[in-house]
Structure formats: C-alpha cells, structure tokens
Amino acid sequence: MSDFQIRLSGSGGQGLQLAAEILAGAMLSVGKRVAQSISYEPTSRGGLSRSDLVIGDEAVDYPLVTDLDCLLILDQIAVDGSLDIIRPSTVVLMDSDRVTAAPKVECKLVSMALVRAAQGIGNVRTANIIALSALAELSGFCQAATLRQMVEERMPPRFVALNLDALAKGIELARSAGSPE
Prior knowledge:
Layout: E1 4-11, H1 16-29, E2 33-40, E3 48-56, E4 70-73, E5 91-95, E6 108-112, H2 114-120, H3 127-139, H4 144-154, H5 157-177
Parallel strand pairs: 1-4, 4-5, 5-6
Antiparallel strand pairs: 1-3, 2-3
Helix pairs in contact: 1-4, 2-3, 3-5, 4-5
C-alpha cells in the first residue's frame, strides 16, 4: 500500500479524535505505519474538529494529508476545510442531515443519515463509530474484524456492546448504499 490518506471531520464533541485513535490502532495492529495529526478550535463543542491519518507500509514521509483518499464529514462546519485536497477518486462520506451543502468538487460522494442511525441504536454519541465502519466498508482500507478488535480493546467495558452495535450499523448502511459513485 502506498500512503493512504484519511480525514475525519466535523464539529467538536462528535468523537472524531476517538474514532481516529481506534482507526490508527487498527492499522498499527495489522502492521501498517500511521501518522496522525489533529486540529480543533478551542471551543469544546461545536467548533471545527478533524483528525488526519496517513497510513502506509513504510515509514510515512510526510505526516499531513495533501491528497485525500477518504473524507468523512459529520457537520456542515467541516465542508470547506478540505476542498483543495479532494480529488475525483476521493470517497467522501457525509451525514445527510447535518451537512446541508455538499462539497462542490468532483468526488465519490455518499450521503447517509449517520447521526440519525446513532439515535436509532440508542446513543447519538456512536455516530463516530457508525461513520468509521461505514467509511471503512465503502473504501476497504480496514477490515471490520480489525475495527471490532480495537473497539473491544480501547472502549471502557460498559460501552463495548453499544459500540459493536454501532460498527455493525455502519457496515449495514454502507452495504445498503452500494459502491460510491
């Protein structure tokens, strides 16, 4: 695998940093090299929040994303910050309720009710895990079993079952959406 670049973006309080930590751990567990960078506004909830990962087989030469393979957008506030690094082959997964104006660039756009799905399984705070598993399923960059293992290892025991339900929901949503166009 040459460097694979992913950005998880949205607003503060959506659990994007946790989702990125789970993804980084999953990729490390299968022998990949990972560089992760985070960016967030100083407000604890509602400001722009994002986490970038560059994943490869060898040491990562440059730790910042410059040419995205995958982008998650969980809130409208995060749309404009990635426009210049989206390419036609970038898989962009966005929340259909919280992102009202899609990126106006050529990409493989998939829109899903991610936050609504989290509400449906009983906890809106699982939208990050639903989104992570849906993006992985759509793009194939990480196996569901590997994400499952990281959730089991990294989540407090009382939240494991809920987050495993969230992983399954994300896979279900991705499979029902089909291939990104």
